[in-house]
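Please produce the structure of this protein holding heme C.
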Amino acid sequence: MIRRGVVLLLLLAVTHSAISAQSAQPVQPFRPTPLKSGIDFSGAEVRALQQDDFSSPAMLWVTRGEKLWNEPAGNSGKSCATCHKDARVSMKGVSAGYPKVDPDTAKLTNLEGRINQCRTQNQQAAPLRYESDELLALTAYVGLQSRGQPVNVVIDTQNRRNFERGRDIFYTRMGQINLACTHCHDRNFGRKLLNDTISQGHGNPYPAYRLEWQTMGSFHRRLRACFFGVRAELPPAGSQDLLDLELFLAWRSQGLKVETPGVRK
Ligand code: HEC
Ligand code: HEC
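Below is the modeled complex.
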């Protein structure tokens, strides 16, 4: 099995070395067409789990997130609800616009980052760790309020540098396998790699429950898994590289519906 996977990867690499040799000029980013969610490439079992909130394991984190939303935390004694009231109203559509440049810090921030900003500044509580159940739960709960809404990020003068850096990462070969994201997710989606069908590589279901992890994971954890797959150095969750990549990927998936909390293989 492993040997077959390596051969496939090498095949992909060889097939595309011709492409990279021509592209000395900056690449023009493009969106895959037709735009398809990873769920469209998923098996029947995964689709059934994601579609049914009663059997979806991801909903456990949503339930927990709703509880946390209403619990006072930190020295402020305030809960998220103290300021934001009913999340179903105040958080509707919010996650579809992330990552974005935060008006308070003037930095590109994803949903996890914004939640932690509220934790530290507005609740005077310790920030939550990436992949902690608490941060996954709050992110899933806030994200759910955008489910079904189209991903909608705006590229402007404030975030253009981040966008360009994310785009460059997407098109740069990396790791011992020496493939770029684009080689799999633009040029080979729909094809089999080991037991997986390669999707277009969108972030619309995250945070998501992965059967392989047997738990919920952040978008950055999923991205790290792809860096690992090509044997590249892993950027830490929350790092600038992954934030910039997240922005580029959100732009690239513009219009796809948010599926949070998703289920994947
Ligand atoms: C003391 C009041 C206060 C508390 C407590 C608080 N926030 Fe906030 N939050 C704000 C303010 C002010 C903003 C920035 C203005 C805005 O976008 O509403 C904000 C912004 C946000 C945003 C971004 C909204 C957007 O439109 O981009 C999210 C998401 C968020 N908070 C989540 C949370 C969560 C989750 C908690 C609990 C862990 C929390 N907040 C606790 C005051 C608070
Ligand atoms: C060797 C091929 C390969 C490369 C290179 C690769 N990936 Fe992936 N990626 C996969 C496979 C296989 C999966 C799991 C099946 C799927 O959802 O596509 C995956 C999953 C994903 C997903 C999750 C999609 C979903 O719906 O859950 C995202 C996002 C993603 N990749 C982004 C990236 C990014 C960004 C890069 C570059 C840093 C990258 N990938 C590089 C093969 C690759």
